[in-house]
């Protein structure tokens, strides 16, 4: 199935530079409807106002982390089917296991390329 680049995407990261990098990678892939949030609670608010076809969230953020956001999304019957990709600088096995148990759709370790991001998105939306 072809990638639907018209789907709205929410990227969540507390570092402006990382938001810009992910936005640019998504644009290279062909996505145009991209919103940003700087932490999990802001992201949750946006998700309750607009239906996103994909969430790409950093793990390490304050005050609400990516894993806390993921747990909130999965416990909300209106949001729980949203594909959710976790981004982290750490590839520790226990983090991957924790994210899987919380219901993550896919997992990306920084740094990554547009091709890697595209493959991960296709895996969760196709």
TrEMBL record:
PROSITE patterns, alphabetized: RESPONSE_REGULATORY (PS50110)
Gene3D superfamilies: 3.40.50.2300
Domain of life, per lineage: Bacteria
Pfam families the record matches: Response_reg (PF00072)
Name of the protein: Response regulator
Residues with PTM 4-aspartylphosphate: 58
Lineage: Bacteria, Pseudomonadati, Pseudomonadota, Alphaproteobacteria, Hyphomicrobiales
InterPro entries: CheY-like_superfamily (IPR011006), Sig_transdc_resp-reg_receiver (IPR001789), ST_Response_Regulator (IPR052048)
Signal sequence coordinates: none
Stretches assigned to the Response regulatory domain: 8-125
Organism annotation: Chelatococcus sambhunathii
Swiss-Prot/TrEMBL keywords: Phosphoprotein
